[in-house]
Specification:
Radius of gyration: 23 Å
Distance between the termini: 65 Å
Shape: globular
Helix content: 40-55%
Largest sheet: 9 strands, mixed
Number of helices: 21
Structural class: alpha/beta
């Protein structure tokens, strides 16, 4: 594709995404569906340029007024994810001079808000939790996330898969905490790999794998993944159960559960029962009350722990939306808790960085519900013999941070019904 045409396409996609009316990944997917002639390399440049602009939006908007031409073109130039000389061949002399001037600005000469590129309402709560580490987190949130795989322990060993990937030119490292994880340097096309088609690997962030590990399901148990979504944790739980017992995957979205079906077929698991429920008080829930050994509630949340993957969330979320979510989170947790039998385990988790969706909900649950004992997360992780489990916890809770642990941001609390 000609450099000028590719830059024009980048500007168009940046403009569409910055309307913030829909999730960025769905805007990008739709754009690719509407422009089927684009090759894989062009698609990669378009997507990465768009995500770079979303990550560094405040910084680029600070530079943009000094340039010329349409705003989205200026932003696309600043965030362009292809080679510099390729980009410059698409620019006029004025634009080249402006880009060089922008490149010459040092980080320390910028205001802090242009460096962290986070909305003001997010800065204070993150600072309160992290203090001097705030800028380290902000910096990492503006970088792309690595690609983590979970090796299906039902049919494969991690070291064997690592060798198999290496044989096809894909380098990987064992994840530092999860016993099933491999971290890849690049973003290879996985769906064509034999290991993928036979269900030996799934894409899953290491932090998400650790949530499944916290549930620690045993063979032959009855387990519920209450907000299963597309089922990444469901599959990890099923493998940990060695495909025995019964594992219910509940979600209010049948559409999301549909995405689980092909993954489930590949995985070789026979103990998973996906079921769409109307709401958290569905009849199915009532029928299973007090019968379940372990329940995972990976609650709908702001998703702010995934900003490396979904940078548009910081611009699309708001304090009002978070306040509405916390009401929903507590209601879902209290309903799911009814499923757990005496001596059973309940795990509440989010991929949020905000205290009110995390510790705040755990505290509200403890106040509202009697008959539960909080299990310190470090104790719940002990059977897994992870390296330094204490480093993954803050107080009694699992608390994963992208800048500390290399995972997405996650929270989890564990209770036992007394």
């Amino acid at each position: 594709m000609h450099p000028k045409a590719l830059l024009d396409a980048c500007a168009e996609l940046v403009g569409l995404t910055l309307r913030l009316e829909h999730p960025a990944d769905s805007v990008v997917s739709r754009y690719f569906r509407d422009h089927r002639q684009l090759g894989p390399r062009e698609r990669a440049t378009l997507a990465e340029t768009t995500y770079t602009v979303l990550r560094h939006k405040l910084r680029f908007e600070h530079f943009a007024p000094s340039g010329s031409g349409p705003r989205e073109r200026r932003l696309a130039i600043l965030g362009f994810a292809g080679p510099r000389d390729f980009l410059k061949s698409a620019l006029n002399d004025q634009e080249k001079g402006w880009l060089d001037a922008c490149d010459g600005v040092r980080d320390e000469d910028l205001l802090e808000r242009h460096r962290h590129s986070l909305p003001e309402w997010l800065v204070q709560p993150l600072r309160e939790q992290l203090g001097d580490e705030f800028m380290a987190l902000a910096q990492v949130l503006n970088e792309p996330a690595p690609l983590d795989l979970r090796v299906n322990s039902l049919n494969s060993k991690r070291e064997d898969i690592q060798k198999e990937l290496k044989a096809v030119g894909i380098a990987s490292q064992p994840t530092p905490y999860s016993p099933w994880g491999l971290r890849l340097a690049g973003k290879p096309a996985l769906t064509k790999l034999e290991a993928f088609t036979r269900g030996a690997i799934e894409v899953q962030d290491e932090g998400s794998q650790l949530l499944a590990a916290l549930v620690d399901p045993k063979r032959g148990e009855m387990v519920v993944d209450f907000c299963a979504g597309a089922g990444g944790k469901t599959l990890a739980l099923g493998a940990a159960m060695r495909s025995t017992g019964r594992l219910y995957a509940f979600d209010t979205s049948a559409h999301r559960l549909d995405a689980l079906k092909p993954r489930l077929a590949r995985s070789g698991l026979s103990n998973v029962h996906p079921a769409a429920i109307a709401h958290e008080r569905d009849e199915r829930i009532k029928r299973l009350a007090g019968k379940i050994d372990r329940v995972l509630v990976d609650a709908p949340c702001s998703g702010l722990g995934t900003l490396r993957r979904n940078p548009d969330l910081k611009w699309r979320q708001s304090p009002q939306a978070v306040a509405e979510l916390t009401v929903k989170q507590l209601a879902i947790l209290r309903s799911a808790a009814r499923l757990v039998k005496p001596g059973g385990r309940l795990v509440y988790a989010t991929c949020s960085l905000l205290r009110e969706e995390n510790e705040g909900i755990a505290e509200a649950f403890a106040q509202a519900e009697a008959g539960w004992k909080l299990v310190p997360a470090v104790q719940a992780l002990a059977p897994l013999k992870l390296g330094d489990a204490q480093a993954l916890c803050r107080g009694d809770f699992l608390r994963l941070w992208p800048h500390r642990h290399g995972t997405d941001g996650f929270f989890a609390a564990v209770w036992e019904r007394t």
